[in-house]
Structures
1.
Amino acid sequence: KQEVTQIPAALSVPEGENLVLNCSFTDSAIYNLQWFRQDPGKGLTSLLLIQSSQREQTSGRLNASLDKSSGRSTLYIAASQPGDSATYLCAVNNQAGTALIFGKGTTLSVSS
Amino acid sequence: GAGVSQTPSNKVTEKGKYVELRCDPISGHTALYWYRQSLGQGPEFLIYFQGTGAADDSGLPNDRFFAVRPEGSVSTLKIQRTERGDSAVYLCASSLGTTLTDTQYFGPGTRLTVL
């Protein structure tokens, strides 16, 4: 059974810092991996999607990497801003390629 | 519409009652998903529709939960004889459905509280 783990559970940093969020998964047979952002009381916003054949994806200050063989992904946020404060969720497509399996998320707080 | 919408945004009910939660997917999206998110947890998959049919309902916790999508657009998640443990945010997502790895777009969720 696929399990997704995110470390750390919470992170507080001052504005301007570069930071890394970690995601690991137990079954490397995935179709893709996505990083989402969730603001309190809101739905999920997709940030980056990495296909299983890809190594990384970039969008603005965000860079996500995927090492499928070791079951790991990282989300790198450059020059963090208070507006980046949110919960970041990692999710993988299960073997059937339909449902997403999520980690519990990392709650990020960026202080000004 | 512009995005996935869900109604109601909040629902408070009493133990044992029946509830219906509605999801309006993005126009043209053939795939629709329901997830449930408990406090401090990531979303957990419930059911996936491709068109009108449930392609994967393996995440439904028991037979009190049922979902329909009669015309391949709007979906309703139905919960019978609600229990306090059903309290959670119920999220709906849709995708184009043309490949197995299309991006899923999520709605804001319905917060269900069972007293």
2.
Amino acid sequence: GAVVSQHPSWVICKSGTSVKIECRSLDFQATTMFWYRQFPKQSLMLMATSNEGSKATYEQGVEKDKFLINHASLTLSTLTVTSAHPEDSSFYICSAGVPGLYGYTFGSGTRLTVV
Amino acid sequence: DAKTTQPTSMDCAEGRAANLPCNHSTISGNEYVYWYRQIHSQGPQYIIHGLKNNETNEMASLIITEDRKSSTLILPHATLRDTAVYYCIAGQNFVFGPGTRLSVLP
């Protein structure tokens, strides 16, 4: 079955630094990738939709200059949290797939802690 | 994307069928219904999806009403490991609602 690898699974960084999270589709090509964040006891909140070769579409209220998304190939998308602050601490999850085909496969998530 | 409505929580006895409903009354004709579940601190796991016909796989069955305004996910013989939050999604943009927290009880 389809596998999505997300790396790192957890990261601790200092306030003011940047962190990059990778999302790879291992055995299929994904034209679309979604990025979510999830706070404890809450549902997944869609941050942005990333289509290969084009700029990401951000949801309302998500700062595109703070959460940089790159989807340069059909198997890799990255999310960079720039100038991280403690309030950015969260569980970040990606998913990858092809619209209308078999649904989307999710990564195992990245727990970011900013200290 | 169609807005979905699910019960906040449900209990089910181990070994019995778990029937999880989802309302998606504003769904468009070409929008699929997807079901995922999430176990604590993991990424969501795909369960099943469908357009208008009922679907079955090794994990579950999906019953979609004829008017496509609602659907039911059926776990035929629930086990303790099925305890999770179950999400119903209708449409392409994959926006998650609050989901249903299913507790399978021994």
